[in-house]
Design a protein that fits this description.
The protein is an alpha/beta fold. It has helices spanning 11-18, 35-43, 56-64, 67-70, 84-90, 107-112, 137-143, 146-157, 162-175, 181-191, 203-213, 216-229, 244-259, 275-280, and strands at 25-28, 48-53, 74-78, 96-102, 231-241, 263-265, 288-294. The protein has a 7-stranded mixed β-sheet, sandwiched between helices. The protein binds S-adenosylmethionine (SAM). The site of S-adenosylmethionine has 23 residues, from helix 2 and strand 2.
């Protein structure tokens, strides 16, 4: 597992829309296992990348192996992209020529971070960066009201049986604290009817909890204006989403900034992976890319 990497998605499209140029500096705010960062550095031998991630373990593990390859063309920053303005100020970085954000979690985090995989018995943690976050999924499951639970499942998981699951959780926790992924899966399994879809009954609930615990949508909303402030004129911003809620935030923000004369939207239609890419990497299936240029 240690050597396995997250497969980067839409790599050619990222390079095309970032419009990589000699001597320019690019900021990859979601370094992950470095697939996109490497592609940028390899595309143009004189460009630089500042690579950021809030998962210190990921940054350490995959950053180490890139340093000898790219030397001082590559710089790492540990931080939350929601706080981009503050983080760049702290690091003394003024402006960059392109920013890439590939939102969500990597396949490695899903399989290794406690609580993210419903197929692995673990404590209900789900935090991607514990130093940046206090509340765990266990806190949420055992403490918030039945209505809030139902809202979380419905809003972030589009779960049709959100109320039924919330009720079952509240009944169960009155008897005994819910502590593990296995406990939670059993509760969901008992109340969600089996459907034809070939996803696990608990998938949507786990996704909703992960988005809520990690404040994923809030982080994107905070990131976008900070990213525009950090771009040089003519600089590009490229965002990859995996969830329609994420994509909607990017789409609306780009449209709003276009109407204000700040951005030129380079992707009037959202860009999706080709059939070849999906065949090669099935997890790229729901990725969508949007790009814009600072006027
Ligand atoms: C889909 S992966 C990125 C994969 C990467 N592009 C690659 O080629 O390997 C998303 C990454 O974003 C990071 N991330 C998620 N939310 C973040 C945030 N608010 N601030 C910084 N990094 C974040 C995660 O820790 C994860 O490593």
């Amino acid at each position: 597992m240690l050597n396995e990497k997250h497969k980067p998605v839409l790599v050619n499209e990222v390079l095309q829309y970032l419009d990589i140029q000699p001597g320019k500096t690019y900021l990859d705010v979601t370094f992950g296992s470095g697939g996109h960062t490497r592609a940028i550095l390899d595309k143009e031998p004189t460009c630089n990348v500042i690579a950021m991630d809030w998962d210190e373990i990921t940054l350490e593990r995959f950053g180490q192996e890139l340093l000898p390859l790219y030397g001082d063309r590559l710089k790492f920053i540990w931080g939350n992209f929601a706080l981009l303005y503050r983080v760049l100020k702290r690091e003394g970085i003024q402006k960059v020529d392109g920013i890439l954000a590939d939102f969500g979690t990597s396949q490695i985090q899903i399989s290794e971070r406690p609580g993210l995989s419903l197929f692995k018995d673990a404590g209900l943690d789900m935090r991607m960066s514990p130093p940046h976050q206090q509340e765990t999924a266990e806190d949420v499951i055992n403490q918030v009201s039945e209505k809030t639970l139902a809202d979380i499942f419905f809003t972030f998981g589009e779960e049709r049986h959100s109320r039924r699951v919330a009720r079952a959780i509240v009944e169960q926790r009155a008897k005994k604290k819910i502590k593990t992924t296995t406990d939670l899966v059993a509760i969901i399994d008992a109340v969600v009817p089996t459907t034809q879809h070939n996803i696990h009954k608990a998938t949507r609930i786990f996704q909703a909890l992960r988005i809520y615990v990690n404040r994923e949508l809030h982080n994107i909303r905070a990131f976008l204006p900070a990213a525009l402030r950090a771009l040089n004129p003519d600089g590009r911003i490229v965002c990859i989403s995996f969830h329609s809620l994420e994509d909607r935030i990017v789409k609306h923000y780009f449209k709003e900034q276009h109407d204000l004369g700040v951005l030129e939207v380079l992707t009037p239609k959202v860009v999706r992976p080709t059939l070849e890419e999906i065949a090669e990497n099935p997890s790229s299936r729901s990725s969508r890319l949007r790009a814009a240029r600072l006027i």
